[in-house]
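Field reference: sequence -> structure
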Amino acid sequence: EKYSSEVSIKKRGKHWEEVRINAFRSDPESHRLPLVLPIGEVTTGHLAEWRDHRLTKVSTGTVLRELTILINLFEVCRKEWGWVVKNPTEDMSRPSRPEHRDRLISWFEIRKMLRALNWQRGPCRTKTQAVGRAFMLALRSGMRAGEICNLKLEFVFDDHCLLPVTKSKPRRVPLTRQSFRLIESMQGWSDQTVFGVDSRRRDALFRKAREKAGLAEAGFRFHDARHTAATMTAKKIDILDLCKIFGWSDPKMAMVYYNPTVSDLAARLNKN
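Structure field:
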């Protein structure tokens, strides 16, 4: 509780961290936490038992995200509060990271989603429509959902936008004419941000539209728009430019997101 109220609250990802911490507290049977022990008596063995139990309940990715919170929590307890002498997560093996998602959103799915999000030309009239335009901007620019939700008009220029706060470091994202028109169509909608929806509301409305479109079982998320954008953009520019646009310092990341089909590669080889 102390970590949640004093440490998590200062983070950009505070919402999801708070959700996970609340889940620890409200569902002890599934999480095997909290332990009824003084924190200084918690051992690596206790946490390894938690890890193995959780892996039978949820995905490896979920366990890794929960473990990240526990690692940081014990570090704060050790370094700042003096509650533990050693971080018990230090000697614990982590589950192998799952393979990166390889999910592209098809044009058929995009069209169905836009209909469910009440897509139409002209000024934006509802938050559902704002989410539809945010979705299209993600597909055209490759920006992350959080970057789009936090985008302000003052940081939008004729051919690019500035993202002062990102997952890694600030960057400038080039805008196509279609992307610029999408942003321009939102003028007057909100005096806070371009799209006027926070990440939580955007997620809820996107899921609702996906259900309405009959695509709830299709397995794609809003973030897959970034993956789809990277694959489409990679057909036009070289790999280093792709890294610059998407904010990757390691070119290996481009290989994670860039997934052309073998037919695409064959067509390119046979061009001209």
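Note: The chain is about 50% helix and 5% strand.
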